[in-house]
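Recall that a protein's primary structure is simply its ordered list of amino acids. Everything else, from secondary elements to tertiary packing, is in principle encoded there. The following example makes that idea concrete.
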Amino acid sequence: MISSDQENQINIYLLSRKLSPQIMAEVKDHFIMQITGLTENGDVSFQEAFLAARISWQKELEMVKADFFSFRKIARIEKELLQTRFNKMTLTAVLVSLIAAGIYLFSGEIYYCFQVFALVLFISIIIFGIVSGKIKFIEYQRISFHPLIIRNIILGMIIFPVGCYFTGEFEFWKPVCNQLLLFYSVTIQIQLLYFRIKKVNVLVQ
C-alpha cells in the first residue's frame, strides 16, 4: 500500500516531467501499480521500487524538444501524443483547403461566402474564449508563435513566390494558392483556439 508521503514523492517526480494532467494521471497509476507489485511481498523497499519504476519509464519520460520549431522541452510520451494531435490538425486544415479549392472551381460566390464563414468562425472563437475567461488574450498572442503557425509562415514563403510566378499576379491576395494557404492557416488557428478553450494540451502556455 502506498502512503500519502510516498504518493507525494511520485507526484513531485512526475510534475518535474511537465506532464499534462491527463497524461500524468495515467502515468501515476502505472507507477503506483508497478511499485505496489514490487513491494507487496516485503523484499523490496519503496525507494528501490520507485527507482526501478523510474528506470523502466526513463525513455518515455526523457525530456526532449517538443517540436523542431519549439524551444520547449517536454517528456517523450507527451511529445508523441502532441505530434499525433498536430498531424490530425494538419490533415483537417489540408482537407478544408481542398474543399475551399473545390468550392472556388464550382462557384465564386459560394467561395466568397465560405471565406466570410471561416473569418466569422475564427473571430467568434476568439471573442468567446476571451469573454468566457477560458483563454487569455496573451495566450492568443502566443498561438502566433506555435510550431504549426511557424511552419505555415515557412510554407507561405515558398508558395507565395511560386504562385506569383505561375499566375503573373504579384498581389498577395490574388493568386488562389495564397488564399488557400490562408484557409489552411486559419483552420489551424481555429483548432488551436478550440483545443485551448477545451483545456486540451496543444503546447500553448
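The mean pLDDT is 80. The chain has eight helices and two strands.
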